[in-house]
């Protein structure tokens, strides 16, 4: 009887694996597609633009610094696969004025056609203890990281629904899955992106438009170097427990998941574990993905108890060291 139940379970799982591709989104063809990348002048955004360009896409780069945009344009154009490809640069702050963002998206569509894929990669990070951060820091990060994703998405969504094709990518962070010491302002702005993405996916799925949320780990970018300047010691030590990824590696995975229409995009074993642990009620693209989350959740939760416990011990050690230092200063 037990063997019969096991055989039935195995057969059921195999059937789900076979059926899964039939109900999954049809992959987006990048050759000739129009891809808009915000924050595309450096870091992950620039690497995503390069990866899409290598696959034959037309690219619109959006960022604030015009000089960096032009420099990125030259670098991206080295990877063309045909003479028809174009890289368009538009200088604008996507977090400040929706009407301005809407206008530049219209300009891009007039020149390169409707947007097939939007990658919201504009963002910034500032770390610090909650009581040490200025209130303006919370406002600024929410504006750049959250509204900087809302405005471009709002500008392209109507056309995507009308055409019944499209991909919208939100680049969050592993700090958007797990709140960490020193990231009270940054994590909250990145968590907000997930809520936006989940609600938006419910609205646009009937129109064959799919949303992807990417959760990259620490990545070797100019933004990460800037973030390190403000990190408290505890945050820096926690960050050092994992390796720093290359932006090219992160970009390839994000583009791959976006093309497939996957809702979650994670990088590496840590990223996979976090995505499985924090999936909650998030949409799944395939039955296979759902089964993997169910099967691995218990194991990963056990591992996470020890994993997060190491973070707590780092914070406690830093507190003890600071207390000893303060006592030594007073008695000196």
Automatic annotation (TrEMBL):
Top-rank lineage group of the source organism: Eukaryota
Short name of any one Pfam family annotated for the protein: adh_short
Keywords: Endoplasmic reticulum, Lipid metabolism, NADP, Nucleotide-binding, Oxidoreductase, Signal, Sphingolipid metabolism
Keyword Kinase: no
A GO biological-process term: 3-keto-sphinganine metabolic process
Alphabetical list of Gene3D superfamilies matching this protein: NAD(P)-binding Rossmann-like Domain
InterPro entries reported for this sequence: KDSR-like, NAD(P)-bd_dom_sf, Sc_DH/Rdtase_CS, SDR_fam
Primary localization: endoplasmic reticulum
Enzyme Commission designation: 1.1.1.102
Top enzyme category: oxidoreductase
Catalysis: reaction(s): sphinganine + NADP(+) = 3-oxosphinganine + NADPH + H(+)
GO molecular function: 3-dehydrosphinganine reductase activity; nucleotide binding
Signal peptide limits: 1-25
Keyword Transmembrane: no
The protein's annotated pathway: Lipid metabolism; sphingolipid metabolism; Sphingolipid metabolism
Membership in a protein family: Belongs to the short-chain dehydrogenases/reductases (SDR) family.
Its job: Catalyzes the reduction of 3'-oxosphinganine (3-ketodihydrosphingosine/KDS) to sphinganine (dihydrosphingosine/DHS), the second step of de novo sphingolipid biosynthesis.
Protein name: 3-ketodihydrosphingosine reductase
Organism: Phocoena sinus (Vaquita)
Gene name of this polypeptide: KDSR
């Amino acid at each position: 009887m037990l063997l019969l139940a096991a055989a039935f379970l195995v057969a059921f799982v195999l059937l789900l694996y076979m059926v899964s591709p039939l109900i999954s989104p049809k992959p987006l063809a990048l050759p000739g597609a129009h891809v808009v990348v915000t924050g595309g002048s450096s870091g992950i955004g620039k690497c995503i633009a390069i990866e899409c360009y290598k696959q034959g896409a037309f690219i619109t780069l959006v960022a604030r610094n015009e000089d960096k945009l032009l420099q990125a344009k030259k670098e991206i154009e080295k990877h063309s696969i045909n003479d028809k490809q174009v890289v368009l640069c538009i200088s604008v702050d996507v977090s400040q004025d929706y009407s301005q963002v809407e206008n530049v998206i219209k300009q891009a569509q007039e020149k390169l056609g409707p947007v097939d894929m939007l990658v919201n990669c504009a963002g910034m990070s500032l770390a610090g203890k909650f009581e040490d951060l200025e209130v303006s820091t919370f406002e600024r990060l929410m504006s750049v990281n959250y509204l900087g994703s809302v405005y471009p998405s709002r500008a392209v969504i109507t056309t995507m629904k009308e055409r019944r094709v499209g991909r919208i990518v939100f680049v969050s962070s592993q700090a958007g899955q797990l709140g960490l010491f020193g990231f009270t302002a940054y994590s909250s702005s990145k968590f907000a992106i997930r809520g936006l993405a989940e609600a938006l996916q419910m609205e646009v799925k009937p129109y064959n438009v799919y949303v992807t949320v990417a959760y990259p780990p620490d990545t070797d970018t100019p933004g990460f170097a800037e973030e390190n300047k403000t990190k408290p010691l505890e945050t820096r030590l926690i960050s050092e427990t994992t390796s720093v990824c290359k932006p090219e590696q992160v970009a390839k995975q994000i583009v791959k998941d976006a093309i497939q229409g996957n809702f979650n995009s994670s990088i590496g074993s840590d990223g996979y574990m976090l995505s499985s642990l924090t999936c909650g009620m998030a949409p799944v693209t395939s039955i296979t993905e759902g089964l993997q989350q169910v099967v691995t959740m218990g194991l990963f939760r056990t591992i996470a108890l020890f994993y997060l416990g190491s973070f707590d011990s780092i914070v406690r050690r830093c507190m003890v060291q600071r207390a000893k230092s303060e006592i030594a200063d007073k008695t000196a």
